[in-house]
Design goal:
mainly alpha, 2 domains
Amino acid sequence: MKELTINSEFHELIPPISPEEYSLLEESLLDEGCREALVTWNDTILDGHNRYELCQKHEIGFKCLEKEFDNEDEAKIWIIRNQLARRNLPPHERVRLALILKPIVEQKIKDKEHERKTTSQISDESPLRTDEEIGRLANVSRNTVRKSEVIEKEAPPDVKDAVRKGKMSINKAYKATRKAVEQDSKTDKQLRKEEKAKQKATESKTKKLVKSKTLGKLRYYWSIADDDERKEFKQWIKREGN
């Protein structure tokens, strides 16, 4: 049986299937064999990781469809496009997948803009925007892309989990995220205010303690000083006061 390579970066781009889906896939492979070819690039799996694992486990034969790409970035783009086309994913999960390609999309936009400037090409087309390109990949608006990006970066775990599973809409999750962020901001402000007040109280207490100890020492030295020493001390106080 042919040995294939599993690239962890490629594998992580693909949302995992549920235990129920995995079990159904295993039953199908045992009953009907591996009817669909695994997609590979240089003998590295692009699509079919679960089928490959189960075929290895049960010694089931499989076929491969070899793709040709110039580099790993192109392979990653194919993987994401393939997942978006094949799977019935919730809107946020579609955007989350597309956002994985953000660095690649940004670089392609920079390269295209550089080419336009260096070749003095005249074009009526508006400059490309990263969020628009991500939106095209995920089949959503750029506004939805921005909201999903905020959710991924700042949402509480329960909100993030719900919107990824499609149990909460992107708009609702975005509002919940903004509310949580504002609440955290208020909490941070209150904590900073309390810390400042505590620090101020500590400083005030310290100053009083120092002042008390200083006065106590002055009283002691004054009580044991002779007339000349007291006179000299009074003159020093006068000079310092001026």
